[in-house]
Every structure is written in C-alpha cells, then in structure tokens.
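thread: overnight batch results

M.L. [08:02]
morning all. the overnight job finished for the chain we discussed friday. pasting input first so we're all looking at the same thing
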Amino acid sequence: MGWDALMSHNELFVLALLSISVTAGLFGAILGLGGGVVIVPALTLLFHIPIRYAVGASIISVIATSSGAAATYVRDHITNIRIAMLLEVATTLGALGGATLSPYIPAKFLYMLFAGIMIYSAAMMGRRRKGDVLAPAESDRWAKRFKLASSYPDQSLGKEVAYGTTKVPLGFGLMILAGIISGLLGIGSGALKVPAMDSAMHLPIKVSSATSNFMIGVTAAASAGTYSMRGDILPFIAATVALGVLCGSWIGTRIMMRLKSTMIRRMFIIVLILISLEMGLKAFGINVR
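M.L. [08:03]
and the structure it wrote out:
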C-alpha cells in the first residue's frame, strides 16, 4: 500500500510507521547506528514517501535513538565519554571538509569508496582478536595522556570488565575519514565509527556501540536545523518516528546489556555487508530505495 493510500487510512499508517520505528530504534541502540539504516529504506520502499522526507525523518530517528540509548548507556557506565568527546572533534572536522569537497567528487567514486570501506571494516571486525573483552588491551601513551582507559559492567559475563585503549592517533584519523565520508554522501557515520573504535582502538564492541550512540546524536542535532529550514521534516511523520524509535531504543539498551559481545559483532558485520551492497549497487546506477 502506497503513501497516499496509507495517509487516507490514518490509523493503519501510524501503526505501520510505529512498528518500523520501534525496530529501527532497537537495532540502532544495540549496534550504535542511527535508525536511518532501517527508516529510509522502509519509508521509501514500503510507503513510497519521497526520499527527502524519508531522510528528514531519518535525522530525527538518529536524534531519538541517541537520546533514548545514550542516557541509559551513560548511566550504566558503558559509554566512554572522554573518547566520545575526543573523536567527535575529528568527525566534525571531517564532515566540514567532506561537505566542502562534495561538489567536486563524482558520486560514483564516492559510493565505490564507501562500499570498499564497509567491506574492509566487516573483514576487520570478523577477525577474532585477543583484545576483545577477555584480554583487555594495554593503554598506549596517548591513551594514558588523555586518561581514556575505563571499565564497564558486562551482564552477559557477570563482572566488571576493565579495558585499555590503543592507537589513538589512528582512531582520530579514521574518525576524520568517517566525517569526510558522512559529509560527502550526506549519511550518518555510525557504520564507520564503531569499526574504527573496535578494530583500530581495540575497544570492546559494547563500549564502541554505546559511545557511537552518544556521538551520533550530536552530529545529527547539528544538521537537523538545516533539514527543518528546507522543509524536509514533516512533523506528523517525524513525531511518529521519534516516538517509535524512543520505545525501540529503550528496549534495545536492555537487550544489548544481556547479549554476548560475539553476537553483537556478528549482527554488525551483517549490517556492514548489507550497506556495502547497497552502496555498490548505487555506484553502478542501481537505486534500491
């Protein structure tokens, strides 16, 4: 059933949109991604909503996911706020550079680059490394200087897990790259932030996801005003999406606390592969939305 038909059946439209938004918030909270991974394809493919309104709703879903999940993760001492503040500087700088360069770089090249980065990130996250949870990495001198080491309570293990941080300059550089890609393609960079923290800085996957949730809300809030001024945010759709995503993220935070790190890693790898396939198809002019 298309958008116009659903709008004429208001209750059906609201229920369908709420269901999708709850799902988006749930996975967004668990994986540290904005709900746009689910929201945009669902709104455009299932409801035939114009892409600009779907992207506007996606921005709201990212803010809602972050608002719903970040507070819980901060309260439960899973989010590493020091790392989030440091890396958000890099992501913002990269996003500004990407937005400046976007008119001069062919879209086909950008999609191919992004697809390649996603495949590489999935491969890196698929490698079983000793530094994940059971054998925390020792902090290097940069991490010690910024006091980035911390610990978090892992309910699946039933204990407090201490962890260190390594290769901070590399992580900072990858965050700049994540910001550039985000600015060039106009997408959220959660799919790049989590692999950077996980594979480069050797943070536990739960900490990477929680810290990403904290960061993506800041990035999305900065751009929401621009989308609103352009009229790309429809209040009726955005409000419904925000409500559903908040409920879903509340559920997702409780599920994530109980999941094993290996399960979260596998889920994230599947999402990365799906995103890379979508971007690869776009590079060849095939739009799946």
